[in-house]
Amino acid sequence: TWKWVVGPMFLYLCERLVRFWRSQQKVVITKVVIHPFKTIELQMMKKGFKMEVGQYIFVKCPAVSKLEWHPFTLTSAPEEDYFSIHVRIVGDWTEGLFNACGCDKQEFQEAWKMPKIAVDGPFGTASEDVFSYETVMLVGAGIGVTPFASVLKSVWYKYCHDATNLKLKKIYFYWLCRDTHAFEWFADLLQSLEAQMQERNNAEFLSYNIYLTGWDETQATHFAVHHEEEKDVITGLKQKTLYGRPNWENEFKTIAGKHPGSRIGVFLCGPEGLADTLNKQSISNSEADPRGVHFIFNKENF
């Protein structure tokens, strides 16, 4: 038995040593941004840190707990000179991080007062393949939208730098939320992308739909009187917020009709139930003919 066990155990120990060495490297918090509804953004720098879109890291804050490591998706783009995560305050550890960063105080906090942070990673995810397709569907559920913040930022940087060499030509983005609380920080990014695309006369590059799944049309009647206004009253975007859940069969058929003969990447960060639905739709809407449209499903679950 030991002959079969010693090899994997040696590799496991090597991997743990590498992770320990990476976690000891110095990390500097350069900026802390407080977003609405107790969500904070930590912008950090670390020597030799390299990332791809949609990757995640493990974070430890010894001031809060000397042993706990927590995974967070990177929300920055590889083209930026820092890496960032968004942390929603929903438990003891995140509350401790919130207080350690001085977010509970009104006065300005000096950088040297920021707590020490240990970072292990980054680690790869399915979202890294988004630039391998000409057309993609990005589906985020709730806080599962975070990897697509990185993707959309990186797409914009690449688009501005050299749009002719960018293989990705069309993005269909879907964001499903139970309530309006999660909209605040991400809506700012979408507003910026929306304005910049219009300035470059390519508003069709990004199509997005935002769904409030915790509401129905009866609850939304208060906002119906504002439907004719130029911008949505909830998000401030030109695209109006939708209520309920998407009809995925119609969405897949519509996209398949617009892109015949294409390989379309479907990327999800969300719950397992939604993953099953999208996987089934990807299979049923892909054609048997190799020259026909094919949906390639990729997922991350939380």
From TrEMBL:
Domain FAD-binding FR-type: 19-129
MF annotations from Gene Ontology: metal ion binding; superoxide-generating NAD(P)H oxidase activity
Keywords: Cell membrane, Electron transport, FAD, Flavoprotein, Glycoprotein, Heme, Ion channel, Ion transport, Iron, Isopeptide bond, Membrane, Metal-binding, NADP, Oxidoreductase, Phosphoprotein, Transmembrane, Transmembrane helix, Transport, Ubl conjugation, Voltage-gated channel
UniProt-annotated location(s): Cell membrane
Main function: Catalytic subunit of the phagocyte NADPH oxidase complex that mediates the transfer of electrons from cytosolic NADPH to O2 to produce the superoxide anion (O2(-)). In the activated complex, electrons are first transferred from NADPH to flavin adenine dinucleotide (FAD) and subsequently transferred via two heme molecules to molecular oxygen, producing superoxide through an outer-sphere reaction.
Catalytic activity: NADPH + 2 O2 = 2 superoxide + NADP(+) + H(+)
Pfam families the record matches: FAD_binding_8, NAD_binding_6
Annotated Gene Ontology cellular component terms: monoatomic ion channel complex; NADPH oxidase complex
Gene source species: Melospiza melodia
Name this protein carries in UniProt: NADPH oxidase 2
Broad class of the protein's primary localization: membrane
Swiss-Prot/TrEMBL cofactor(s): FAD
CDD domains xref list: NOX_Duox_like_FAD_NADP
Family annotation (InterPro entries): Cyt_b245_heavy_chain (IPR000778), FAD-bd_8 (IPR013112), FAD-bd_FR_type (IPR017927), Fe_red_NAD-bd_6 (IPR013121), FNR_nucleotide-bd (IPR039261), RBOH/FRE (IPR050369), Riboflavin_synthase-like_b-brl (IPR017938)
One GO BP: defense response
Membrane topology: Multi-pass membrane protein
Electron transport keyword on record: yes
